Amino acid sequence: MSKFQDSLLGEYGVEWKDIAVALRPSTTLQYLFAGLGFLTFYVLVFKPLRNIFFHPLSHHPGPRLFAASSLPYGLWYISGYWHTKIFALHAHYGPIVRIGPNELSYACPEAWDDIYGRYVPAKRKENPKPEWYCSPASHDMVGANLGDHGRMRRVMAPGFTYGAMCKQEPLIAGHVDLFLEKLAEKCKGGEEAEVNMLEWFTYCTFDLIGDLAFGEPFGCLENAMLHPWLQLVFANIYITHILVLCKRIPFFYLFLPLKTTVQLFLEFSRHVVLLKEVVDRRLAREGKRDDFMDIMTSKPSKTLYLTKEEIFKNAILLTGGGAETTSSSLTGMAYILAMRPDVKRKVVQELHATFASEADINMRSVAKLTYTGAFIEEALRYYPPGPNTMWRRTPEGGNTILGEHIPENTVLGIPHRVLYRSPTYWARADEFHPERWLPEGQRPSEFDADRRDGFQPFSYGPRVCIAMNLAYAEMRYILARYLWHFDIDITEKSKTWMDNQKAYLVWDKPGLFLRLTPVDGVARE
């Protein structure tokens, strides 16, 4: 120590030991760094190792990286290609795969009843939907708890019977008439025209279902464009589906573009107000229309009714869920028909063998189209409108799945596309063969062992889609009238339309451009 340093410190009354104490890390900082170190060790080492080796699900096969953390699943999901990854995982690990620390994926027909089946007292509890997927606070039939779901379904079920469908047919036929009229305008002078059929099927189904649910169409067909609310939904399909993932794994909020997300919420809020005004207008209108709104406003008893909020939320559910899946399915069918002239020829031949004129085509008579019905089933197997999993969660105390006790709060489900393309359950699973759905005796024997009981595109059990029969009738009816009026061919730019599509809860689809040639009921070879 120099004399200069000693004199300098002495001048200010400071000793070297005071400086040493001041420079020593404080107890608070020590605790902070120790805590951060422990947290890092827990998150990056201890918890992943515990999940891999000591978790109640650790005996199930699956990649260790997925067992260690939910992040690998989340990253694949936001990529849009989870449907391809989960297919590869099941091909490698088998029918039951652990795809997350507390998540199991089942690709076997027998699992439908145990996962999605009816609640049986003293035998099987319901596996509810996780709140991050469908919250009971949504006030609609999809998110409702067991009791509220049953009440809503009993109120709404009469609107989806065969008799109700017959009453709704004039309204449905009117929208299909306009759909065909608009397509004919595209083919000026009877010449062929290139048309984006994804757009036009979407316009048709949203106008049709919107009219049934809200009491007035969205004007998509008339204006040849989507309603602004629907534009929001389709333009932000990525964000809306990633929000579901964020509720489950908060880390993925980092992937959301903040400005766009805030704008989306503000726009949705504005359109919710406008849609509520539409509902108010319909509720104020006198007289019956035999539409969904008539059914939802009925009160069969003092305990069987829907609140105004439930009416509004279920109208949105029916429009968004019913119209999108139907338009997606019809677009997929049009693509397959354009790519497979042999299949198209059989569908058209059956159509002309069954009906003498277009006037004979209605929502009841199309049920007689055996090959067309088989074609629709095969199209839904080959290109399911909801390719991924409809998640469920085991209840308090766990549940028994395929004879095994699965602990509580385990996320589980069946990925549609994986099960429907599995060579274990389907002959020539990656090939398109409507013949596999023909009645026994007409069906080629190579398809006899197909697990048709595992095919549940509209879900299964008490929460099966209430509009399933209407959707089938709509698809048959629209397809029959469409093919009665137009021959269709694929364009060069759409030949790979079905390849490499991204999928979230639904497919993220590009436009499908087909060449339409007016034929107006003329039989074709």
UniProtKB/TrEMBL annotation:
Q: Does the UniProt entry include the keyword Transmembrane helix?
A: yes
Return one GO MF term. monooxygenase activity
Classification via InterPro entries: Cyt_P450 (IPR001128), Cyt_P450_CS (IPR017972), Cyt_P450_E_grp-I (IPR002401), Cyt_P450_sf (IPR036396), Cytochrome_P450_monoxygenase (IPR050121)
Name the source's superkingdom.
Eukaryota
Cofactor requirement: heme
Where do transmembrane segments lie in this chain? 28-46
Keyword Transmembrane assigned to the entry: answer is yes
- Pfam families, per database record: p450
Q: Which PROSITE patterns match?
A: CYTOCHROME_P450
Q: Which residues bind heme?
A: C465
Protein name, entry field: Cytochrome P450
Q: Which organism is it from?
A: Dothidotthia symphoricarpi CBS 119687
